[in-house]
Design a protein that fits this description.
Layout: H1 23-40, E1 50-51, H2 63-72, E2 76-80, H3 93-108, E3 113-117, H4 127-137, E4 144-148, H5 157-170, E5 172-176, H6 178-184, H7 201-207, E6 211-213, H8 230-241, H9 256-261, E7 281-283, H10 289-294, E8 301-304, E9 307-308
Parallel strand pairs: 1-2, 2-3, 3-4, 4-5, 5-6
Antiparallel strand pairs: 7-8, 8-9
Helix pairs in contact: 1-2, 3-4, 4-5
The structure holds zinc ion.
């Protein structure tokens, strides 16, 4: 059995991992490969590219060429919103300068923005509100999605309230990563975790923000488990975030909301069922949410364009050369 040791608490990149800090050669390598894969999987998996780079890139001459390449390949502009070597609090002029450049480069090329923000248990990490503040000041009209946003759950009620107002004003969508963040946050050897690591989806949704659940890591140093299964992600999200009693329309966090955030909702009812739609759906042996969420549903039937596809899972040995 392969064992991956968990990342060091409070650090985004685990020690020893190659850090993607130089976009120029990496973007030239990754984007053409991505483009080929996207073409190969057309009609089966919707793939969108995001330039997930350290925020420092937007303080360098690499930012413009990177944005051009992202535009050429139909991706979105992104960043892990922290500057290496600097704390996330207080907000520094360099944070403002980097985010301003990011939003301007995106606006000039009509790109959407996808940011990984405040993935930490440090309550002083307040980049989420800074993102909203810069987006509002720049009058950015593209789509903005912020994921993680963990530290918000550890901040004061007053600060949370003000942040939610700013997020709503800036039109920012939120993605929570319940499995990944519960795995990483509050992790210290020999110490039982005290919180679940997730952001404030209940408060955000009731405020009118669009919210989704997802995972950005699967069997790697950031999350040791997972199988890229959105039904499993939703099942665990229900437990971790208490999306039940009532279940209400929380299922949309794994269906319609991500489709809308990815701008797929205009394309033949992706993420929703509709008469005359394309019949992409999952059939399960369950009559209620309790039955749905209590079994793994490995015997599910997956329809693509109305036809059942082969859902046989690959043997783990076929994945060995990817480890
Ligand atoms: Zn992330």
């Amino acid at each position: 059995m392969r064992h991956t040791s968990p990342p060091v608490r409070g650090r985004y990149w685990p020690a020893g991992r190659r850090v993607f800090t130089r976009p120029r050669p990496q973007a030239d390598i990754s984007l053409p490969v991505f483009s080929d894969l996207r073409a190969a999987w057309t009609g089966r998996i919707e793939l969108q590219a995001n330039a997930l780079v350290p925020l420092n890139v937007y303080l360098s001459d690499d930012a413009g060429p990177l944005a051009d390449k992202v535009a050429r390949y139909g991706g979105s502009l992104g960043a892990v919103v922290r500057l290496s070597g600097l704390p996330n609090h207080p907000v520094l002029p360099q944070h403002d300068a980097a985010l301003t450049r990011l939003f301007r480069l995106a606006a000039e090329r009509a790109l959407d923005v996808d940011l990984h923000v405040d993935e930490t248990d440090d309550p002083d990490s307040r980049m989420l509100r800074e993102v909203a503040r810069v987006a509002l000041r720049e009058r950015f009209t593209g789509r903005i999605v912020c994921s993680h946003c963990c530290s918000l759950a550890l901040q004061t009620d007053e600060y949370i309230d003000a942040t939610l107002n700013d997020l709503l004003a800036a039109g920012i969508d939120i993605v929570s990563l319940p499995t990944v963040n519960m795995y990483l946050q509050s992790r210290q050897a020999g110490r039982t975790p005290r919180w679940r690591g997730v952001t404030l989806l209940h408060e955000m949704k009731s405020r009118g923000l669009r919210v989704a659940v997802a995972g950005d890591n699967c069997r790697d140093p950031f999350h040791a488990y997972g199988d890229h299964d959105m039904l499993d992600t939703f099942t665990q999200a229900v437990r971790i975030l208490q999306l039940d009693h009532p279940f209400a329309d929380w299922l949309t966090t794994a269906t319609r909301a991500p489709a809308e955030i990815m701008r797929l909702d205009n394309d033949d009812s992706i993420g929703a069922l509709a008469v005359g739609g394309r019949a992409d759906l999952i059939l399960v042996r369950a009559r209620t949410y309790s039955e749905l969420l209590s079994r793994h549903q490995f015997d599910r039937i997956v329809l693509r364009m109305g036809r059942a596809i082969d859902t046989t899972l690959p043997d783990y040995r076929l994945l060995d050369d990817m480890n």
